[in-house]
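thoughts on both lines:
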Amino acid sequence: MSQHNETERPVKCSGCGIKLQTVNKELPGYIPESAFEREPVICQRCFRIKNYNEASSVSVDQDEFLHLLSGVGEKNALVIHIVDLFDFEGSLISGLQRFVGNNPVILAVNKCDLLPKVTNWNKLRNWMQQRCKEHGLRTAEIVLVSAKRNQGFERLLETVSELRGQRDIYVVGATNVGKSTLINRLISDYSDLEQELTTSRYPGTTLDMVKIPLDDGHYIIDTPGIVYPWRYSELVERRDLGAVMPENPLKPAVYQLNEGQTLFFGGLGRFDFIQGPRQSFTCYISTTLKIHRTKLERADSLYQDHRGELLTPPAAADMDKLPQWQRHEFRIGRGSQTDLFISGLGWIKVNGTEGAVVAVHVPRGVKVLTRPSLI
């Protein structure tokens, strides 16, 4: 086998055309030293797609991603936009419509297994349709899936078949929403990977889309995952991800609170009930995160004295890496069915109909908003 020395080594992946590097496995273009002896010389990501039907997503920031997408509107494309049900508003690509033009968009909503089995799924779809409309996003179809439990994929594939025609399929989504699993399912249903993996690049992009050939001459185009800095999943250390992102169905935790009471979600967030009649609040957060109730007047000192100990995660060492907490105050109107949504951490449903003044404290930059109740 021919040895490549440094001068002869190819600089770019013959699969996706990205610049090769041997330093960081997490970054695009990674190739182990030994792989330079293989023919063709391809990066680890292309190697995995080709040999294991496995797409592993790389990531970019929003501006870079939207730059990558420019031009899709002129193409004949079917776009699958995958979002995380647990972090719906945090993972929705709100600027997507102006880039996809009149091409159809399937909204694939992952992690539907987190909701109670008794959920009214039609009502839920209407709720999502409404949220998309508010963000100016038109959807041809909304399909609920669970990558973890392998649910909903048959329906998704049917929808893809109905809408695809002569189109390439673009798969878009934020990081950690289950995009790789979805692409792997599409590959196994549509692609004969005995073919050589051929990928062509869009000129002028810093990070390339990977084109996976389908049996009919069209492609699945795997776009990089977008990093949204306002999501908790992007802020915490990797070891705390499990505590933040629920693995199992959510167990709603209901608290009857008087005004002047506070709930801490580990050391990651705080909810204050400032004013209003005694009422209940339902917390939809990961079951691995401990909730502590205290008096509002004692909340600041409790946090100062017990952060990183009683109030974990994160551990004390990791707390200082997070941005300073920021307070968000909301006035909840009478008779409104409202959630307080914290991107990547979950949501708190306000059950009372008499109105309330509440506040949420989370690290600066984390997206916090009110929305009509999901459940």
In short: Confidence is low (pLDDT under 50) at residues 1-7, 193-207. The CA atoms of residues 3 and 192 lie 31 Å apart. Residues 121-134 form the longest helix (14 residues). The longest strand covers residues 77-84.
